[in-house]
TrEMBL record:
It holds the Pfam family HutP. One of its GO terms (molecular function) is RNA binding. This is Hut operon positive regulatory protein. CDD domains: HutP (cd11640). Antiterminator that binds to cis-acting regulatory sequences on the mRNA in the presence of histidine, thereby suppressing transcription termination and activating the hut operon for histidine utilization. It comes from the Bacteria. InterPro entries: Regulatory_HutP, Regulatory_HutP_sf. The keyword rRNA-binding does not apply. Homohexamer. Keywords: Activator, RNA-binding, Transcription, Transcription regulation. Belongs to the HutP family. The keyword RNA-binding applies.
Amino acid sequence: MEYGSKKVAAVAIKMALAENREEEARLKKEFAGDGIRAAAVDYGGEFINSVQKIVERAVVAAKREGVIKETHPEEGAVAGATREALSQIMPKALGLNVGGKIGIARWHDHLSVAIFFGIGLLHLDEVGIGLGHRAV
């Protein structure tokens, strides 16, 4: 089957919204049947101090799960898509604590990174999703 950026982005979002490791594993297996490689990783902390760690976690998870190879272009694509996703949420998250999950998906040259955020403000939590795409 042929997939484009829309399908790959949807897979990344589904991975970012997975409730637990078991659901992540089930989704990865399901998507692998369609030739889509996927990964997910949790993160949390104060937004400004967490940006670098979030990008690093996304790149490491993508390599560990075989979504990308250990090359500059592929690592850079994950880092760039992750930074794009972060920039979409930045206005909501600046100065606050965030936590959630990063979902990464790839089919051939389409690579998407989705970041689900729980944004803490006292007990009034906000949520958001940032999404980035790169061609590899």
